[in-house]
């Protein structure tokens, strides 16, 4: 399984912002659209115990909520990986 997984839904500004942040940081990730893929939705719920995207999983760290809440935690988790 990839080290970074981003669970998204279409037309989600927070999802797009997280994707741009990960790309800007040069962090390869796998995106899973939970609206179009019932298996991805079930996986997100099992791994993160939440029902709403975006959810970002970096190694063992699970982040959810709006981009403004996730951003500092994502950057800290990426810094630890470096």
From TrEMBL:
Ranges for domain Glutaredoxin: 4-61
Gene3D superfamilies: Glutaredoxin
GO process annotations (BP): cell redox homeostasis
TM region(s), chain numbering: none
Domain of life: Bacteria
InterPro entries attached to this UniProt entry: Glutaredoxin, Grx-like_ET, Thioredoxin-like_sf
Record's keyword terms, sorted: Plasmid
Coiled-coil spans in chain: none
GO molecular function, one term: electron transfer activity
Protein known as: Glutaredoxin
Lineage: Bacteria, Thermotogati, Deinococcota, Deinococci, Deinococcales
């Amino acid at each position: 399984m990839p080290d970074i997984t981003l669970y998204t839904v279409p037309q989600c500004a927070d999802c797009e912002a997280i994707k741009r942040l990960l790309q800007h940081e040069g962090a390869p990730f796998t995106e899973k659209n939970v609206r179009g893929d019932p298996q991805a939705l079930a996986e997100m719920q099992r791994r993160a115990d939440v029902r709403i995207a975006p959810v970002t999983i970096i190694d063992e760290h699970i982040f959810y909520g709006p981009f403004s809440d996730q951003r500092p935690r994502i950057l800290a988790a990426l810094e630890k990986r470096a």
